Amino acid sequence: MGSFGKWIGGGLGWAFGGPIGALIGFTLGSMFDGSVTVNTSHSLGQSRTTEGDFKMSLLVLMACIMKADGRVDKSELAVVKKFLVANFGEEGALDALQILKNLLDQHIDETEVAMQIGMNLNYSSKLELLHLLFNIAYADGEVVASELATIQRIANIFRIDSLDFDSIKAPYMKHVDSDWAFKSLEIESTATNDEIKKAYRRMAMKYHPDKVNDLGEEVKISATEKFRSINEAYESLKKQRGIA
Fold it and tell me: What tens digit of pLDDT does each residue of 35-57 get?
């Protein structure tokens, strides 16, 4: 394995323990004929979050999203591969896809893994994780009800504020929700122009890519997309309202 092998071998902290550690152990055992073992006895909440912890969390939750509608087909895997290449590069994507395929063959307790992630990631990192899950769900051009329900359950376990969840979801609902730009900025459609400006400044600060700086360059680049969606929502409202 290439770049992903590096962080699995030495770049994981708390993800070596608990239910995610057990999944990693089974996955690596399957990929390397049982020659790799993972210690799953680490106490939760004792290690700092590494880039590897975040990426493995993403892969495990991606598997949950992909299995949400009860089936995984080749076209879906092809879309996911494009997503992984865009976010983690060609080499990292190939390794991640191999791990993901093994995860898809396993039973994953969505609640247990979400609880472990929720206990160890900071709030900004959890928001970015949800953003990436929406990217995966929307990869085929639509977030179906089963996928949305799965992401909502994960967000609830993460204790994500409802306004923050709606803000992340809003850009993926443009075609069905005319108020998506207001929801992106976490304000009501009755907001004044001054309130819109203040909301934009607040949201731009909340979702600045530097908030996830310690999770690696690829994650920071991905976070930039959410930052851009905040700008897009603001520009849309400026145009609607004629704000200078």
Answer: 444 444 444 444 577 778 888 89
Residues 41 and 76: their CA atoms lie apart, in Å, by 34
Copy the structure tokens of residue 21: 């550690």
According to the model, what pLDDT value does residue 2 have? Answer: 53
With CA atoms as reference, report the closest residue to 183 among 230, 238, 114, 122.
230
Which amino acid is present at 154?
Answer: I
The identity of residue 77, as a single letter, is: L
CB atoms within 10 A of CB 127: 25
Q: How far lies 53's CA from each of 11, 38, 138, in Å?
A: 8, 14, 24
Q: How far apart are CA 3 and CA 1, in angstroms?
A: 7
For residues 66 and 103, is the Cβ–Cβ distance under 8 A? Answer: no
For the chain, the domains span 1-121
CA 223 to the chain's CA centroid:
10
Tens digit of each residue's pLDDT (9 = 90 or more) over 103-127: 988 899 999 999 999 999 989 889 9
Residue with tokens 């306004």: 163
Number of CB atoms found within 10 A of residue 123's CB:
15
- Cα(160)–Cα(128) distance, integer angstroms: 11
End-to-end CA distance of the chain: 52
